[in-house]
Amino acid sequence: MLWRPGQIPRFDLILLGLGEDGHTASLFPGGEALKENERLVATAYVERLKAHRLTLTLPVINAAAQVSFLISGQSKRPIVDAILRSDADSFSYPAARVSPSDGQLTWLITVDAIGNLPIR
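Request: output the structure for the sequence above.
Response:
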């Protein structure tokens, strides 16, 4: 990866998880970090965890050559279903906003998390 100040870096690979609330990295639904378009990283305070978090911003994630989600667990099924079916409300989930502009997006999902979604 070659990076110059003032430019968004292009990572070769970013591996992400998915929270039961649709968060990814430390980008939480309704969080201020979702609105960040200038900085490479942002901070987020997560009330339910009583913790400050540091995250890459969506512009950095979406500039990657390859973004992969690794998702497991039956509790993730409703979020996976909403995002992959592109339900009207799915854009409210930060993970649904991951869409590499000039790269590839891959979802690696265990059987218990995929539920009844058609697999292609």
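Strands lie at 14-16, 41-46, 51-56, 66-71, 104-109.
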